[in-house]
């Protein structure tokens, strides 16, 4: 018997007349295949995963197990429809706190249609994607038996300001999680959930080290699902802190190029989580938009990371140089985010001269979005 997942925090939801994922009791998660290339993309990605020698075993564990596709009764009542059959990541968790973090400052693949790009660009601008390199697509934080979960609506979660996103990363591991965002989070579970050799930070760092090398895939609009169980943490037990990569409808071939969008967003997330571990009590709640932006520009992690790559001279630099001259747009995009008032124009002129598809992207970003400074 298939039912609606109890702990879904983002994405399309099953309901009356609504197509969304379903779960069974044996621990399988059925995600309906989108009829267009998104469904085909995701199947192709999962099908290639286990046999792809470029993905080491210790990285394979970050993906849900894939059990193929199956025709099942769709949740919207439209009859039998092919679904991806995946491991149900919430199986065995009683009251999990879950956060869906969509990684990347840009969430559309290069092949996307103009209409789809506009839709994504709007969401990227209106969320923290453009400024932080990631956004919270949805979340639930377990509070207590009496209070249940704090689960802001999907749209509300996505519209959180950059400061609020940082605050939510703290609330996620706090014991004083009331409904309002004004209370100062105590970060009581930061060290057990984010920290330690098996904690979230350590897992994110492992993923990062792979993304520093891998050039097989570019994962647009992919999410990191972050999970743990507060009740276990309270009992002094292992809280089951875990990250998993999900949503591969917009995977694109890497063609020998580093996935800078994903890597940049991942570094940014790592930076904020590291900060929580090093300074769990330093929580600035009120910061003016301008100060916030300054802070991001100077200290956003995406930038810092690129700086450190540059300084470390480890091949990424050469890569970035190639990317710049080969009109890839990634580096320029980073520049755009970093120094919107310098250098970018020259670069964009070069790019425009080369007249490829990426220029159009940059134009969109430039013409209509030069308020990011
Ligand atoms: O339609 P919406 O507004 O729910 O958008 C979906 C997004 O939900 P959101 O509201 O941004 O959380 C949804 O985002 P999340 O997975 O929820 O982060 C996807 O971006 C989805 O696109 P696709 O199926 O991956 O191509 C988006 O679906 P499409 O409408 O583009 O198919
Ligand atoms: N394998 C899984 N097991 C459990 N929950 C999942 C799994 N995959 C996704 N989810 C839940 O469903 C949500 C949406 O998943 P996603 O693949 O992004 O769908 P969509 O393409 O509709 O956006 C996630 O935020 C998560 O809560």
From TrEMBL:
<keyword id="KW-0547">Nucleotide-binding</keyword>
<dbReference type="GO" id="GO:0005737">
    <property type="term" value="C:cytoplasm"/>
</dbReference>
<dbReference type="GO" id="GO:0005634">
    <property type="term" value="C:nucleus"/>
</dbReference>
<comment type="function">
    <text>Inositol phosphate kinase with a broad substrate specificity.</text>
</comment>
<dbReference type="GO" id="GO:0008440">
    <property type="term" value="F:inositol-1,4,5-trisphosphate 3-kinase activity"/>
</dbReference>
<dbReference type="GO" id="GO:0032958">
    <property type="term" value="P:inositol phosphate biosynthetic process"/>
</dbReference>
<keyword id="KW-0067">ATP-binding</keyword>
<dbReference type="GO" id="GO:0005524">
    <property type="term" value="F:ATP binding"/>
</dbReference>
<keyword id="KW-0418">Kinase</keyword>
<keyword id="KW-0808">Transferase</keyword>
<protein>
    <recommendedName>
        <fullName>Inositol polyphosphate multikinase</fullName>
        <ecNumber>2.7.1.140</ecNumber>
        <ecNumber>2.7.1.151</ecNumber>
    </recommendedName>
</protein>
<dbReference type="InterPro" id="IPR005522">
    <property type="entry name" value="IPK"/>
</dbReference>
<comment type="similarity">
    <text>Belongs to the inositol phosphokinase (IPK) family.</text>
</comment>
<dbReference type="GO" id="GO:0051765">
    <property type="term" value="F:inositol tetrakisphosphate kinase activity"/>
</dbReference>
<dbReference type="InterPro" id="IPR038286">
    <property type="entry name" value="IPK_sf"/>
</dbReference>
<dbReference type="Pfam" id="PF03770">
    <property type="entry name" value="IPK"/>
</dbReference>
């Amino acid at each position: 018997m298939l039912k609606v997942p109890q702990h879904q925090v983002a994405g399309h939801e099953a309901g009356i007349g609504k197509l969304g994922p379903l779960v069974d009791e044996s621990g399988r998660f059925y995600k309906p295949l989108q009829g267009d290339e998104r469904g085909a993309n995701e199947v192709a990605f999962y099908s290639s995963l286990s046999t792809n020698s470029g993905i080491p075993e210790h990285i394979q564990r970050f993906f849900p197990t894939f059990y193929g596709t199956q025709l099942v009764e769709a949740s919207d009542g439209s009859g039998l429809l092919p679904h991806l059959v995946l491991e149900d990541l919430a199986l065995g968790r009683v009251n999990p706190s879950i956060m869906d973090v969509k990684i990347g400052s840009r969430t559309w693949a290069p092949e996307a249609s103009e209409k789809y790009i506009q839709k994504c660009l709007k969401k990227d601008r209106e969320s923290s994607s453009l400024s932080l390199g990631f956004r919270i697509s949805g979340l639930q934080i377990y509070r207590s038996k009496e209070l249940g979960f704090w689960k802001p609506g999907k749209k509300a979660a996505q519209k959180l300001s950059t400061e609020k996103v940082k605050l939510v990363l703290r609330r996620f591991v706090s014991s004083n999680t009331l409904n309002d965002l004004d209370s100062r989070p105590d970060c009581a579970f930061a060290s057990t959930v984010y920290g330690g050799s098996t904690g979230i930070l350590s897992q994110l760092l492992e993923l990062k080290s792979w993304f520093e090398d891998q050039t097989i895939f570019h994962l647009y609009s992919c999410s990191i699902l972050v999970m743990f169980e507060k009740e276990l943490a309270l009992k002094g037990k292992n809280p089951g802190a875990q990250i998993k990569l999900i949503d591969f409808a917009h995977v694109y071939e890497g063609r020998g190029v580093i996935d800078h969008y994903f890597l940049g967003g991942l570094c940014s997330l790592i930076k904020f989580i590291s900060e929580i571990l090093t300074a769990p009590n330093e929580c600035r709640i009120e910061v003016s938009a301008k100060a916030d932006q300054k802070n991001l520009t100077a200290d956003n992690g995406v930038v810092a990371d690129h700086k450190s790559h540059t300084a470390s001279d480890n091949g990424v630099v050469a890569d970035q140089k190639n990317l710049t001259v080969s009109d890839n747009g990634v580096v320029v995009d980073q520049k755009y985010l970093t120094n919107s008032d310098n250098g970018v124009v020259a670069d964009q002129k070069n790019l425009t001269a080369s007249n490829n598809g990426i220029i159009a992207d940059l134009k969109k970003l430039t013409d209509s979005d030069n308020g990011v400074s």
